[in-house]
């Protein structure tokens, strides 16, 4: 009998200093053909942004296990590539902010300066480390005001390990991977046969059975959204798979990494009409949808309405419970923020660092249908029979 996800989660906490030479999760996943509870599709999606990273360091196995335990519909990750071409789950192209690399003397000579998204960046870059080297690093919490007790306990995981976590869940859990900084990755990492980062990314998804258009039978069994800030990568991926894709939107003043257009330019109606041929939705930074000034929200833009007019979903990012991130309009109440975005703005999904709080909010206002108990079914049968007594 293989261990449950809950068992593995606690083993991760108890074994902070173990370096696993093999994947923690057997690949491919062994589901034993068990029928799982399906993905809920009747309310906006709860997207666990980098796992439950409000509690546990981001993009680690423990963060994803916790998010699933807390009710995530999708677990979200960023995919980068190592020096030797392995696909890993990690957000930044540099290792500085969330690992112990700076304290590792054997890597002191690896510090470099590269151009990333139009700017020179200095640090320890993922693309200068092999997968074996990356696996020796320990991951830390990004924000100092969050719980630090799990620092140094978990390692970087691969894309395949991430997939296995979702496939091994006791219910249907979707995955939401991002092709992260594809222009940078394709410049610094080369694969045999002239393959690109996007090709390796899609190959991995197809290897584990992820395919099919949005809401198709196969998609409902293995739900997936592919996301990227780079529109050319989404167009390229569309030639390789029919799985649904999400075009991420940054601050309107920022230039895309691949087209040298601002996000203001590519949220025009003309551009939305074009990109809707390749994607099923947008993933905008929430402050591009509703601008803020002095931490107060201003009048909403019409981006959600225009996206919906083009039959595009809207999944904004990122919802966080801390006062540093909550606009003052919500009076330090994350439930008030969820209520505004779901009921007033009409979004179709939310990226959150606190999966549990979004799940609790949605269970309060739009609860998942509960399974009927045997007793309640017997009562219904008795009531039906009583209607015919005396005939």
Could you please describe the fold and organization of this structure?
The chain has a single domain (45-387), classed as Alpha-Beta Barrel (TIM Barrel), CATH 3.20.20. The chain contains 14 helices and 14 strands. It has helices at 5-14, 61-69, 131-134, 159-167, 182-188, 197-207, 217-221, 231-238, 269-275, 286-289, 303-309, 334-344, 355-365, 374-386; strands at residues 45-48, 74-81, 87-89, 112-116, 119-123, 157-158, 174-179, 226-228, 245-249, 281-284, 292-293, 296-297, 313-314, 349-352. The strands form 4 sheets. Strands 1, 2, 3, 6, 7 and 14 form a 6-stranded mixed sheet that branches. The chain has a 4-stranded parallel sheet with strand order 8-9-10-13. It is globular, with a radius of gyration of 22 Å. Mean pLDDT is 91; it is low at 16-23 and 372-377. Keywords: Glycerol metabolism, Glycoprotein, Hydrolase, Signal. InterPro entries: GP_PDE_dom, PLC-like_Pdiesterase_TIM-brl. Residues 44-362 form the GP-PDE domain. It catalyses: a sn-glycero-3-phosphodiester + H2O = an alcohol + sn-glycerol 3-phosphate + H(+).
């Amino acid at each position: 009998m293989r261990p449950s996800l809950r068992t593995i989660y606690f083993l991760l906490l108890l074994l902070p200093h173990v370096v696993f030479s093999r994947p923690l999760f057997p690949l491919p996943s062994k589901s034993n053909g068990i029928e799982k509870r399906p993905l809920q599709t009747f309310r906006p999606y709860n997207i666990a942004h980098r796992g439950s990273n409000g509690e546990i360091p981001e993009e680690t196995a423990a963060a994803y296990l916790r998010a699933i335990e807390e009710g995530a519909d999708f677990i979200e990750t960023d995919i980068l590539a190592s020096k030797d071409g392995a696909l890993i789950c990690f957000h930044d192209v540099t290792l500085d902010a969330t690992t112990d690399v700076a304290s590792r003397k054997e890597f002191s000579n690896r510090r470099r300066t590269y151009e990333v998204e139009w700017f020179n960046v200095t640090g320890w870059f993922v693309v200068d480390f092999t997968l074996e080297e990356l696996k020796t690093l320990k991951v830390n919490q990004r924000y100092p005001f969050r719980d630090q007790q799990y620092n140094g306990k978990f390692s970087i995981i691969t894309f395949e390990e991430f997939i296995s976590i979702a496939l091994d869940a006791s219910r249907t859990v979707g995955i939401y991977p991002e092709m992260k900084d594809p222009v940078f990755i394709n410049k610094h990492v080369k694969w045999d046969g002239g393959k690109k980062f996007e090709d390796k990314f899609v190959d991995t998804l197809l290897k584990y059975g992820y395919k099919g258009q949005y809401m198709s039978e196969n998609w409902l069994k293995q739900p997936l959204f592919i996301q990227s800030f780079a529109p050319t990568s989404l167009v390229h991926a569309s030639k390789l798979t029919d799985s649904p894709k999400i075009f991420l939107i940054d601050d309107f003043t920022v230039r895309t990494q691949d087209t040298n257009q601002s996000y203001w330019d590519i949220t025009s109606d003309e551009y939305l009409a074009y990109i809707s041929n390749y994607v099923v939705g947008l993933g905008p930074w929430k402050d591009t949808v509703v601008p803020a000034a002095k931490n107060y929200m201003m009048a909403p833009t019409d981006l959600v309405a225009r996206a919906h007019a083009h039959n595009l979903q809207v999944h904004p990012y990122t919802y966080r419970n801390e006062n540093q991130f909550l606009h003052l309009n919500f009076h330090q109440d994350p439930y008030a923020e969820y209520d505004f975005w779901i009921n007033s703005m009409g979004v179709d999904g939310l990226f959150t660092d606190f999966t549990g709080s979004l799940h609790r909010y949605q269970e309060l206002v739009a609860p998942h249908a509960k399974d009927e108990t045997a007793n309640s079914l017997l009562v219904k049968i008795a009531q039906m029979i009583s209607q015919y007594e005396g005939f």
